[in-house]
Amino acid sequence: MSPTPWRRLNRTALLGAGVVVLFAVAVLLGSYTVTIPDFVKILAAHLTGGEKIPGASFIVMENKLPRAVLGILIGVAFGLSGGLFQTMLRNPLASPDIIGISYGASAAAVLAIVVFGASGAVVSAAALAGAIGVALVIYVISRGDGPGSRRGNAAGNRLILAGVGVAAALGAVVNFLLTRADIRTASEALIWLNGSLNSASWERVGILLASLAVIVPALALLAGPLRMLELGDDAAAGLGIRVNVVRFGLVIAAVALAAVATAAAGPVAFVAFLAGPIARRIVGRPNLPASAFTGALIVLAADYFAYNVAPIVLAGTVLPLGVITGALGAPFLLWLLVTSHRKEA
Hints:
Blueprint: H1 5-28, H2 36-48, H3 56-89, H4 101-114, H5 121-141, H6 156-180, H7 183-194, H8 202-229, H9 233-238, H10 243-265, H11 271-283, H12 288-313, H13 321-344
């Protein structure tokens, strides 16, 4: 039995509350703990230019707080992107991780690092351009031009298959570039490829926040037609929806979300893939706000474990964020494939 709209709203609100709780845990607890009164003093001093607490002010305002805020924004962007692809294409495998968009960003970033010696903002810009460029290539390849299909209509299965093929080719390109690089350059590229919040700063937060401020309102305008697309292309067209135009707009929005998040922190594995199905099981149906909150929860929880718990368990070893999310995503993918096969049988 499907939950009522009121229950779905309550469950989505609980996910939002969970994000707030994990945000507080990330900022206040960990290797350096901060009390709530001290945090209020530090924040007030930073905003008003008052007296700062030596050491604590720097740790909170320049490390823990921007790291947690960037984690939320990245999780929201990946969660929305994955939920959008999966809802639009009606396939839980349709996420930037699976269909090659993250690989496009990775290949472009590694090319910039290995061949051109780029770093910082240049690598982020290359990743952004690579994600968008590969997405356009996949969309063009997946256009339905066969008998009985509509020209320009990116059918879901064709898009996923095209993305998987492009991802395999780009993965080979990344491996080739890494084998041709010297050890120091290759290590820098591997750090970026794993995805991490270690480079979090208020500048990155501002850029990502400004990007989401443009993309999310545009996505809100497309949310209504998206609900119609869930009924199928023919039903949506019968209701007056311009299917090809709407789908292209949704693809652009989803790609932009994944691209800006990848540019900010690297291709954090499987967040976009995990957020949508988990949110759907909690809420009871595809829900973009729930997917956004779930993505933020995954990133905050994984980063806290990687940055604070893993060094205790692994004798001082700090794991990249992408290692933790990848460890979560791989078994979930296998479980999803097994359960899907059972349903078809």
